[in-house]
Design a protein that fits this description.
This protein is an alpha/beta fold and about 290 residues long. The chain has helices spanning about 15-25, 55-60, 70-80, 125-135, 170-175, 200-220, 235-240, 270-280, and strands at about 5-10, 40, 45-50, 65-70, 90-95, 100-105, 120-125, 140-145, 160-165, 175-185, 190, 220-230, 245-250, 255-265, 280-290. Helices cover about 25% and strands about 30% of the residues. Bound molecules: phosphoribosyl ATP and zinc ion. Zinc ion binds near residues 52, 53 and 54.
Length: about 290
């Protein structure tokens, strides 16, 4: 039987689509169908274990899965609330599903900042992270644990403030709440355990990590091309974000302009293009890079 690396992923929810998309960009071919718990990758010795996100850290810790993709918020919460130390750690940050765990209160509430939390009740689905924050900051507030709909707690009178995940802020606003403190910043992370991995699985994992690294780098990296005045080459080179020496190509029959091309490893914003134009660059093109390997 071939040795296969097992990756635990959220089956359905806010992390699922981006996790599947990342693996597909890494060249993994698979289909998610029906209610199955396992999906087989067709072109690599990898199986996907499709579960609820909260189970991912413990599945990785107890060996039911070799690695997993989960929100850092869930990883930290599971680490803080498990009775035994959970053997799961971050291998790589993945940059999607970014959110913040925030303290928030109603605009009419007496709780306006962290100094006014003593003696009050805070509703949350994150008792572990909230408990650690309160303890580290010596705040004497009571945590009211809920399983969901935390944003409704102040209006129904079961808490004075809440501690919940925020991404766009629309949910807080719709419930008349305002964030006054971020206690954790989170994004999707790739996790494994500290156990020694079977050498065959280790090879598969190393290959996957290299590909993920390539996908993440190429998503920010752009190829930029333009025509530029010869006397502005240095000034233009200086503002190209995260690029090495650009390629300079003469233009037939033109003594004043050259073609410049460069790989920019950081985001190229509109502001940069406006600056380039201000320096006399013309016909500026920014192209995506599909794959990278250094
Ligand atoms: O079923 P399962 O247990 O697998 O999923 P789940 O319902 O527990 O989690 P899910 O799918 O909602 O979220 C999975 C992960 O996505 C979270 O653990 C975070 O790491 C990440 N994430 C990113 C978010 C959000 N953004 C987010 N905005 N998770 C939840 N929210 C909720 C938040 O709790 C609040 O209710 O969205 C609301 C706020 O959103 P905004 O945009 O209005 O601020
Ligand atoms: Zn969950």
């Amino acid at each position: 039987m071939t040795t296969r690396l097992r990756i635990a992923l959220q089956k359905k929810g806010r992390l699922a689509d981006d996790s599947f998309a990342l693996l597909k960009k890494c060249g993994l071919r698979f289909a998610i169908r029906g209610s199955g718990l396992l999906a087989r990758v067709k072109n690599m010795p990898i199986d996907l274990l499709l579960v609820r996100d909260d189970d991912i850290p413990s599945f990785v810790a107890n060996g039911a899965s070799d690695i997993g993709i989960v929100g850092e918020n869930v990883l930290v919460e599971e680490q803080l609330t498990h009775t035994n130390k959970l053997d799961a750690e971050i291998i790589m940050r993945l940059g999607f599903s970014r959110c913040k765990l925030c303290l928030a209160s109603s605009e009419k509430s007496n709780v306006k900042d962290t100094q006014s939390l003593d003696g009050t009740r805070i509703a949350t689905t994150y008792p572990g992270v909230l408990g650690r924050y309160l303890k580290d900051n010596n705040i004497k507030a009571k945590s009211v644990e809920m399983k969901g709909a935390v944003e409704l707690a102040p209006s129904i009178g079961i808490a004075d403030s809440i501690c919940d995940l925020v991404s766009s802020g629309a949910t807080l606003e719709a419930n008349g709440l305002k964030a006054f403190k971020t206690i954790l910043e989170s994004e999707a992370v790739l996790i494994n355990s500290t156990r020694t991995l079977d050498p065959i699985k280790k090879d598969i994992l190393d290959k996957l990590i290299n590909r993920i690294d390539g996908v993440l780098k190429s998503s920010e990296t752009k190829y930029i091309m333009m025509n530029a005045p010869k006397n502005k080459i240095d000034a233009i080179t200086a503002i190209l974000p995260g690029s090495d020496a650009p390629t300079i190509i003469p233009l037939a029959g033109n003594d004043e302009l050259v073609a410049m091309q460069a790989v920019c490893t950081e985001n190229v914003f509109w502001e940069t293009l406006e600056e380039l134009k201000g320096l006399g660059a013309r016909a500026i093109l920014v192209l995506p890079i599909e794959k990278m390997m250094s």
